Each structure stands twice: as structure tokens, then as C-alpha cells.
Amino acid sequence: MAEAVTEARRGTEVEERLIGTASGPTGGPILLCVAGIHGNEPAGVHALRRVLAALDGRLDKLEGSIVALAGNLAALEAGRRFVDRDLNRAWTRARLEQLRSNRAAGESVEDHEQVELLDAIEAVLHRAGGPVFALDLHTTSGPGGIFSVFTDSLPHRAFAKELPVPMIFGLEELVDGTLLNLLSENGVVALTVETGQHDEPDAIDRAEAAIWIAIVSSGVLPERSVPEVIAARALLHRDAGHLPRAFEMRHKRDVVDGDGFVMKPGYSNFQPVQAGDLIAEDAEGQVGISEPGRLLMPLYQEQGEDGFFLVREFPAFWMGVSHVMRRAGLSPFAFWLPGVKRVTGSPDEVIVNKRIASFFARQLFHLLGFRQLEDAGSSLVMRRRRFDEGRYLRELPVPTSLETPPGLD
Ligand SMILES: [Zn+2]
User: Fold this and answer.
1) What is the pLDDT of residues 201-252, one digit of tens each?
2) Cα(34) to centroid(ligand 1), Å
3) How far is the CA of 35 from the centre of ligand 1 (A)?
């Protein structure tokens, strides 16, 4: 397999988890950047080195700080997505507790990586006296993967909108245990950015562009001190401006060991597909598309648990409607709809009876800022996202430790 051979000889050496930092006054905003949490995605590491070098001459202009961390050092060196397990899938509070309890006695390479990365992130959150923004830098195995992913609450959406790349809504509901989700739940305004195909040089340029834009939109440096930001916006617009601004997630194909899933060659991100298109094969035969849409992240590497995603355009009109509904604080009224029941003891969770609340329920709750936790056939369990209120646009949340359960706000 050609891919395995090229993967094996293409490692990226990163000596320390801390790629670098540029510190301004305490109490200012912090931009936390994580690159290479998947080891075959080194573009972000290179981009962060470039930005930090370029910042050297203007440290006196900083109004906040930037901290750049490498995700999976062992996998970066091996040039593989991961060594023993995916480092971007076990960021749950239960798992962190378990890692803490057997500390250095972790069983896998990624246990060790995760404890170290967790410590480095906790140190940043601990010293934060103001808002913390995060940029989690990734690339895709197929071509054209330029987009952002975030948990859709108002401050996160505002941060994402600054990047002129498609925003994918609802992806985070289908992928559990990501660092993005845990950071967001704890008050970090976090964004995952995919900047192209793993080893294309443009992926580094786009990651660099995303970092410059985030430096400005997080308030770490004022725009007048970042002349790079104009070219950065132009670059991302050049490469992603032809695509719709927003997409919603429709479907994910899981890949498990032994199911024989193989994408057919030639598919790229955002490629339009029709119902019935046969785009992959698995042990049971051909894999077809269930409804028209566009492909996202077709799997063209050996490691990975997601075969492909199917998304469809999320019209700007509905994005506007949902923004207005949330700013107006309409979410609590959803609890009074027919077929909707509150979960006892959990003020932000509802059970939606799909028969009574019918087909519109899921869409309506998404517009109101709820995230789906579980689809139990006849009912849906959904939870209101934290920090999804207008007041958090005026005053950003101050994050808490990732290991303490979030309090109620
Ligand atoms: Zn990745």
C-alpha cells in the first residue's frame, strides 16, 4: 500500500510539547493553539513556528498571549495519525480521571501523551485571568478539506465567523471525546480548523493564515499590528470562498476494524453526491449515499474511525434566524413545546418525543442551540449548549479546569 510506505518515512520531529509562547500582560486574552494532535497532520506545527518567529519583533504590542502546543509528539515523529489510539477521542471527564489515577503507569503511548498535553493545557487555563480562545489545527487525508468545526454557541460561532472558510454545524455531535468539545464545555472559545490535505504546502500557509486571523479576533494583538491578516483573509477566501458559508451534518459512516471499508478513489471534500451514488466498498459490498449532499472527509489513510461524512448546505437565512432566537433568549420556551419533557435534575436537558414533536423537533432544537446527546428511536435526548446566551457575547466566559465538572450557569 503506497500510503503506508510514504506515511512511514515522513515524520516530524518536535522536541518539546511547548512549541513556543509569546506573552503579553496578564489578564489579557490567551490564544491556545494545538497542532499535530494527529501525528500525520504536521502542517499546524510548521505554521505555528512561522507565526511565533514573526511575532518576535512586536512582543511589546501584545495585549494578550499566545501559547502553542504540539499534540502527539510520538505520532508526529512516526508520521502516523496515532501510535496506539486516537489522541483526539478520549477527552471525557471520566477518562481524564482514570488517566490521573494510574498517572505514569498509563498503558499506551497516547495515555502518556494525553497526561502531558492535559497538564500543559491546565497550566494555561490556571493562569488565565480572562477569556481563553483555542485553535485546534488539523488537515484531511482527501483534497479540499478547508473548514471549521465548533460547538455552536454564540461566542464560538462569532469566533468561527472571522475565518472565511465553511463552518460545519453538528459535526461535534457525531464525534465523541474530542479536545474541542471538552475545551468548549469548560468555557474556552474553541475552534477546530482543517486547512487542506495532510502534506500539501498550502495547508501550512492556510494554517498560518488561520492563526493570524485568530490572533486578531481573539484580541491578542490589535489588527493594526498584524499586517499579515489582510493576506491571510485573502488566501482563505481564494481557496474556500467558492463554497457555501455553512453546512449542517447529516450522516457519518463509522469504520470499525474488520468491516473492510475502502473509499473508491477520486473523491474530495465538498464534492456533491446524489442518493444512490456508490462511493465505497465494505465487507458487505457497495456503500451507497442515502440522500443528496456533499462529502466531507472521505477516508484516504489507513488509520481513522470515520469513513466519510455527508453534509448539506445550511442556508444563511436559517443561520440568521437561529442567531436572533438565541440572542432573544428563546431557548427556555422550547421546554414548553408539546412532546418535550425536561430531564429531572438536569436543567438544560430535554427528552423529545419524536412522534408528538414530529420531524421539526431536531431542527428546531438545533436552531435554539441544543446539541443531540442520544437518538433512542422514538425519542431524542438533547442538551442546551453552555455559554449560549447573549450575555456571553458581551462578556466572554472565563474557563475552568478541564477536570472539574462544569457548574451550572
Ligand atoms: Zn486531525
Assistant:
1) 999 999 999 999 999 999 999 999 999 999 999 999 999 999 999 999 999 9
2) 11
3) 9
Distance from the alpha carbon of residue 120 to the mean position of ligand 1, in angstroms: 20
Average pLDDT score over residue span 173-188: 91
- Check whether 396 has a pLDDT greater than 50: yes
Query: Residue 129, SS3?
Result: coil
For the record, the C-alpha cell of 118 comes out as 492535559
Query: Count of residues for the chain?
Result: 409
Residues near ion ligand 1 (CB < 5 Å) are: 38, 41, 138
Instruction: Compute the distance between CA of residue 126 and CA of residue 47 in angstroms, rounded to an integer.
Output: 26
**Which residue did the predictor score with more confidence, 7 or 97?**
97
Domains parsed from the chain with CATH numbers: 2-240 (3.40.630.10), 246-313 (2.40.50), 329-387 (no CATH)
Confidence of residue 406 (pLDDT cuts 50, 70, 90): low
Q: What does DSSP assign to residue 385?
A: P
**DSSP label at residue 267:** -
Q: What is the DSSP string of 161-226?
A: HTS-S-EEESHHHHSTT-HHHHHHHTT-EEEEEEEEETT-HHHHHHHHHHHHHHHHHTTSS-GGG-
End-to-end CA distance of the chain: 52
**295: β partners:** 310
Q: In the 8-state DSSP scheme, what is residue 278? A: E
- For residue 9, pLDDT over 60 is answered with no
